[in-house]
Design a protein that fits this description.
Strand order of the largest sheet: 1-7-6-5-4-2-3
Distance between the termini: 54 Å
GO molecular function: carbon-sulfur lyase activity; pyridoxal phosphate binding
Largest sheet: 7 strands, mixed
CATH superfamily of the largest domain: Aspartate Aminotransferase, domain 1
CATH class of the largest domain: Alpha Beta
CATH topology of the largest domain: Aspartate Aminotransferase, domain 1
Bound molecules: pyridoxal-5'-phosphate
CATH architecture of the largest domain: Alpha-Beta Complex
Number of helices: 17
Family: Belongs to the trans-sulfuration enzymes family.
Organism: Triticum aestivum (Wheat)
Keywords: Pyridoxal phosphate
Helix content: 25-40%
Protein name: Methionine gamma-lyase
Number of domains: 3
Length: about 450
């Protein structure tokens, strides 16, 4: 990856460039420090001062290490790689790309810089990041305390899959209720407290410092899914032990990649890559190096994109409220967690790009979405988030459909709840005019007419 590797001489394989002074796990500590006046806690500053990888031929972008396997010049080196005496950290020596891959590792460094963690490694999906961290930290028969409102896939993992496959059981609680969280902890059994910074889809904001304290008191790790709020909130700086991401969303920004990340202590990444016992090594949710290269080019403009997602979402939430709609957006002053988000959030990035509109019934929600997509072209009916176009879905019958109706009701997911990921293409006024027109059309329709349009 460094210029010095550009030589074609085989001997260069023996004389690798000198290892960097710090190991890969200290990605944040490499390169210039933030200068006076720049906040080191600003993720944009962290990203900008992280080590920049150049391409093999001096390219401004890193090269893609497309190899599945890596050669050594001495058999002895291979043996020492397998015993762990040599490795990517100190020696820039690699075994096989299901283990560390240089390009994926470089992206991991960027993710560590973004989240302010010691280390990070990237995976093939957000779900593989979540499931492998849970399997690594909890172990068979262990206990998890999790938020009642989580992405449907994570909820199903905790309520169905893990109990069936490994006897891991979860107590779901209202994470705002300190007494309930405390009493859900089982001494000696609870290994993980799991929460989303901003819950999918209800947009509740977790009190991360409080949960970090409770987890620590119980000897558990706080794992936070920061998929909805990259850059906006930095959970590790607030006390979370591990931060996971679906990079398929805002980080990708283009709805064309499925990817995930695990950000946390170097010891966790190392343990997860252990050849005998590591969940990443043995379950194998490997990120392709070509995907890592794509995402590495998108991270530098993530802070800019998040600012615009937030600005538009805040403006739309305000205007939707004035239209008389039931809007949920943590940036609105009457959101129950508005002050908490203001206190926890990174200044300058707003309250994120997600908002919810509760239309009361699924039929009205469907009618509005129909017009927003097919009549006025405001956005697209699709699950997922973080795209440059607005995406909208009715959570109860889509991304939260894995949850039982009672669980959905307890989590505050009403049948008419539309989750919107506010995009930034087109102008704000153009988009607003499209939104207003769709609402007018929906109001003019009879409920039965709007339902028939869906067929
Ligand atoms: C909050 C959250 N976490 C995790 C995931 C899973 O991510 P992926 O689809 O990348 O596996 C999702 C997907 O929608 C999500 O919304």
């Amino acid at each position: 990856m460094a210029h010095v590797l550009a030589t074609a001489q085989p001997l260069a394989l023996l004389k690798r460039p000198p290892p960097p002074k710090a190991s890969f796990v200290d990605g944040n500590d490499k390169g210039p420090k933030a200068r006076h006046g720049e906040s080191e806690s600003d993720p944009a500053v962290g990203l900008a001062v992280a080590r920049h990888e150049f391409g093999e031929h001096g390219g401004v972008n890193m090269s893609i290490e497309a190899s599945a396997t890596f050669t050594v010049m001495e058999p002895e080196i291979l043996r020492r790689l397998f015993t762990g005496e040599l490795g990517p950290e100190r020696d820039q020596l690699y075994i096989y790309s299901r283990h560390f891959n240089p390009t994926v590792l470089a992206l991991g460094r960027q993710m560590a810089a973004l989240e302010g963690t010691e280390a990070a490694y990237c995976t093939a999906s957000g779900m593989s990041a979540i499931s492998s961290v849970l399997m690594q930290l909890v172990g068979a028969g262990g206990h998890v305390v999790a938020s009642r409102c989580l992405y449907g896939g994570t909820h199903a993992l905790l309520s169905q899959f893990l109990p069936r496959t490994s006897g891991v059981h979860t107590t779901f609680v209202d994470m705002d209720d300190e007494v309930a969280v405390r009493s859900a902890m089982k001494p000696g059994e609870t290994r993980v407290v799991f929460v989303e910074t901003m819950s999918n889809p209800t947009l509740a904001v977790a009190d991360i410092p409080m949960l970090a304290r409770l987890a620590c008191e119980a000897g558990a790790k706080l794992v936070v899914d920061n998929t909805f709020t990259p850059v906006v909130v930095s959970p590790a700086r607030l006390g979370a032990d591990v931060v996971v991401h679906s990079m398929s969303k805002f980080i990708s920004g283009c709805a064309d990649i499925i990817a995930g990340a695990i950000c946390g202590p170097a010891s966790l990444v190392k343990a997860m890559m252990d050849l005998q016992d590591g969940a990443l090594m043995l379950l194998g949710p490997t990120m392709n190096a070509k995907v890592a290269s794509e995402l590495a080019g998108r991270l530098p403009h993530l802070p800019l994109r998040m600012q615009e997602h937030s600005r538009r979402a805040a403006e739309f939430a305000t205007r939707m409220r004035l239209l008389g709609l039931q809007v949920r957006y943590p940036g609105l002053p009457d959101h129950p967690h508005h002050d908490r988000l203001s206190a926890m959030g990174n200044p300058g990035y707003g309250a994120g790009g997600m908002l919810c509109v509760d239309m009361g019934t699924e039929e009205r929600a469907n009618s509005l979405m129909y017009h927003l997509q097919n009549t006025t072209q405001f956005g697209l009916m699709a699950v997922s988030l973080g795209y440059y176009q607005t995406l909208m879905s009715c959570s109860g019958n889509s991304t939260s459909s894995e949850m039982a109706p009672d669980d959905r009701a307890r989590a505050g997911i009403s049948p008419g709840l539309i989750r919107m990921s506010i995009g930034y293409n087109g102008t704000l006024d153009q988009r607003w005019a499209q939104f207003e027109r769709a609402v007018t059309l929906m109001k003019q329709e009879t409920p039965s007419a709007s339902a028939s349009k869906l067929i």
